[in-house]
């Protein structure tokens, strides 16, 4: 999946302590037609360039671990499907408008409707741990070097 990062509802960072990048609706069509809704893990990369200028640092533009919620987020009663990607990295600046590439490697769990925000936050933290443990397994790091990504500033494994 890929597309320009756009503004969402602002809930990820403010309400949940888990900032997310939202991709345009059309970027999720290929994936949503072949899979079920839920939480996924893999790698993501944000383009350094926006509007013809280098904006992000090399560190911020590396291929990085991610978790993604794909669906309607029943806790928030969303009416349309969305892809909300949390890249596990502390970015120096916002990257709205930058192109993001996302490679999904596995499925963690289905979407759930939570009785409380705290229960949702607890599962999000578990999702992040599961994602990091999953990509730490033998063979998963090689996907960081996939030609899908821009590997100019990616360290060799």
From TrEMBL:
InterPro entries: Riboflavin_kinase, Riboflavin_kinase_bac/euk, Riboflavin_kinase_dom_sf. Keywords: Acyltransferase, ATP-binding, Flavoprotein, FMN, Nucleotide-binding, Transferase. Residues 1-136 form the Riboflavin kinase domain. It holds the Pfam family Flavokinase. GO terms for biological process: FMN biosynthetic process; riboflavin biosynthetic process. It comes from the Eukaryota. GO terms for cellular component: mitochondrion. The keyword ATP-binding applies. Pathway: Cofactor biosynthesis; FMN biosynthesis; FMN from riboflavin (ATP route): step 1/1. Its EC number is 2.7.1.26. One of its GO terms (molecular function) is ATP binding. The keyword Iron-sulfur does not apply. Belongs to the flavokinase family. Catalyzes the phosphorylation of riboflavin (vitamin B2) to form flavin mononucleotide (FMN) coenzyme. This is Riboflavin kinase. The gene is Q1L2E2.
């Amino acid at each position: 999946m890929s597309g320009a990062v756009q503004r969402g509802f602002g809930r990820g960072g403010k309400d949940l302590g888990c900032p997310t990048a939202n991709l345009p609706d059309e970027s999720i069509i290929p994936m949503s037609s072949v899979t079920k809704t839920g939480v996924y893990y893999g790698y993501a990369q944000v383009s350094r360039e926006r509007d013809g200028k280098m904006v992000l640092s090399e560190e911020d533009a590396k291929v990085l671990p991610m978790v993604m919620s794909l669906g309607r987020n029943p806790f928030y009663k969303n009416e349309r499907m969305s892809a909300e990607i949390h890249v596990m990295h502390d970015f120096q600046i916002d990257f709205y408008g930058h192109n993001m590439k996302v490679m999904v490697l596995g499925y963690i769990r289905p979407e759930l409707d939570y009785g409380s925000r705290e229960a949702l936050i607890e599962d999000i933290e578990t999702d992040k741990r599961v994602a990091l443990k999953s990509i730490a397994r033998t063979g998963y790091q090689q996907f960081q070097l996939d030609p899908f990504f821009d590997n100019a500033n990616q360290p060799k494994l």
